[in-house]
Each structure stands twice: as C-alpha cells, then as structure tokens.
Design a protein that fits this description.
With about 160 residues, this protein is an alpha/beta fold. The chain has 6 helices and 5 strands; from the N terminus they run αβαβαβαααββ. The chain has a single domain, classed as Beta-carbonic Anhydrase, Chain A (3-Layer(aba) Sandwich), CATH 3.40.1050. A 5-stranded mixed beta sheet has the order 2-1-3-4-5. The radius of gyration is 17 Å and the shape is flat. It is an enzyme of class 4 (lyase). Its cofactor is Zn(2+).
C-alpha cells in the first residue's frame, strides 16, 4: 500500500464534492426540527477500525470519539463538552468498542496487556462511576468487542 499524501486526500475531497450533502449548522437544527443525536461511540484510533462500516453508521447518526486503545477515560472531557454543546442531558447512550489485536495490548505495561474484554468492562465501570457524566448517560453505557478478522461486534 502506497503512502497516502495530502495531495491524495485533497483529490479525494474534490471527487467527493459531486455527491456531498450539506449538513445543517447546529444553530439550524431546532428550526429544521432535527432532533439532537443521543449516542456517542468511543473506539480505538486504529486505522483498521471503522465504526461507520461495522455499525453501518451514516453521517450524523452518532458522535464518534477515537483515541489510542479506545479508552473511555481519555474521552470523558470530549463527552462532557459534546453533551453541553447538544444540550445537557441530550446524550443517552455511550457505546464503548474495543477490538481484537489492538496495538495497546502489545505494550509491556501490564495494564495495557489485559485482555480485550477486561478492558471493555473496565471502561464501562469507569464511565458508570464517573462523577462528570450525567446519570441518564451512565444508564446507557454498553461495551462491545469488534473482531478484526470477522467484523463481528459482540456485546460484553
């Protein structure tokens, strides 16, 4: 696979304009009777992991936050900010998706070597115990594991 260049990305952007559908500004959503999205998904930044593919997400279906290892603790400030931006209490569902063969499991640090399911359960617990997240969102916390080889997503 060749290295993706900025020129490649800009060319792809230009090609995508033929089918681009404008999105409303946040300030226009209420006037257009567009309900705020209530789901946020936290997953790994691994380039093999695409929630748009394995959950069939369309633009605007959910907010997707990505970080190394898909750790919810690293995304708490983003989740709180998003909830405030959308209207406090709007977010009702927090989906945490880890995956098999995660690079984070290849480090020697024992915390990162824990198996995938244990990491998901730890993130679920962290979100549910966070004093920063609204109670309604804590009730909607769910964890999943994506199998990189099969594409199957399994709830933990």
């Amino acid at each position: 696979m060749a290295t993706l260049t900025v020129a490649d990305l800009l060319a792809r952007n230009k090609a995508s304009l033929l089918s681009y559908q404008p999105r409303p500004y946040l300030s226009d959503r209420a006037a257009l009777n567009i309900p705020p999205r209530s789901s946020v998904l936290v997953t790994c930044c691994d380039p093999r992991v695409h929630p748009e593919e394995f959950f069939g997400l369309k633009s605007g279906d959910a907010a997707v936050l990505r970080n190394a290892g898909g750790r919810v603790r690293l995304s708490l400030i983003d989740i709180i900010t998003l909830d405030a931006l959308l209207g406090h209490g709007t977010l009702k569902q927090l989906l945490i998706v880890h995956h098999t063969d995660c690079g984070a499991t290849h480090f020697k640090d024992e915390d990162l070597k824990a198996d995938t399911i244990a990491r998901v359960k730890g993130d679920i617990e962290a979100a549910q115990q966070s004093e920063l997240l609204p109670e309604a969102l804590k009730k909607g916390v769910r964890g999943f594991v994506l199998d990189i080889k099969t594409g199957v997503v399994t709830e933990v």
